[in-house]
Amino acid sequence: MVSVVSVGVIVPNLIVGTLVICMGFLVVWRRKALNEFIYDSQKKLLGSRIARASAGRQTPFMMGLVGVLIIIIGIAMVTLGIVGIVQRLSP
């Protein structure tokens, strides 16, 4: 038996999913600046030793990987919204 997507989640999934995809592309595109910003912010807030232990181990490659995962989540959200529309329109 196929589960039916609730009507209340179709539009939010389409809207938020599109925004999530855009944010994922933004993370991938600006991954180096984002990595430096996070490191600098943690250094100011927690001190340089703790910042090196946490954010200092991050690399721009890992930020890009996180961006790709964000894009995949957005695609899943949009897909769920489209599946809900197709379920509502089919007899």
Describe the structure.
The chain has 91 residues and is mainly α. It has a domain at 25-83. It is built from 4 helices and no strands. It has helices at 10-29, 31-46, 48-54, 60-89. Helix 2 crosses helix 3 and helix 2 packs across helix 4. The longest helix is centred in the last third of the chain and has 30 residues, at 60-89. The two termini are 16 Å apart.
Output the radius of gyration.
18 Å
Instruction: Return the string of H and E elements.
Output: HHHH
* Distance separating the two termini: 16 Å
Helical/strand content category = mainly alpha
- Biggest sheet statistics: none
Query: How helix-rich are the residues, as a percent range?
Result: over 70%
Unreliable spans are none
- Shape descriptor: elongated
The strand count comes to 0
Helical region count? Answer: 4
Oligomerization state: single chain
Mean pLDDT metric? 90
**What proportion strand?**
under 5%
